Amino acid sequence: MQFIKPGDLVTRDLGKRTQGMMTLVGRRVSGTIKAGSVGNDQPLSVSTDVGVDPQLKLKVNEVEQNPFSGERRLGSFS
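The chain above was modelled as a monomer; its predicted structure follows.
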């Protein structure tokens, strides 16, 4: 079951930042699960932030914020 339709997602540029010797380009994809969709009284926000090194074509880190599973961090963080 899909709670957020792809057309309802919002993508936001987080700009560039340096991590070690890499320049990462950040992007946030977020959406809202509507009230009542999963028995929730209020809308629930979910988001995923991704840092990519465009030169290496490598995803370096990812942070997911989800009310069901909390915060999930993957990758290399400094």
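The longest strand covers residues 22-33.
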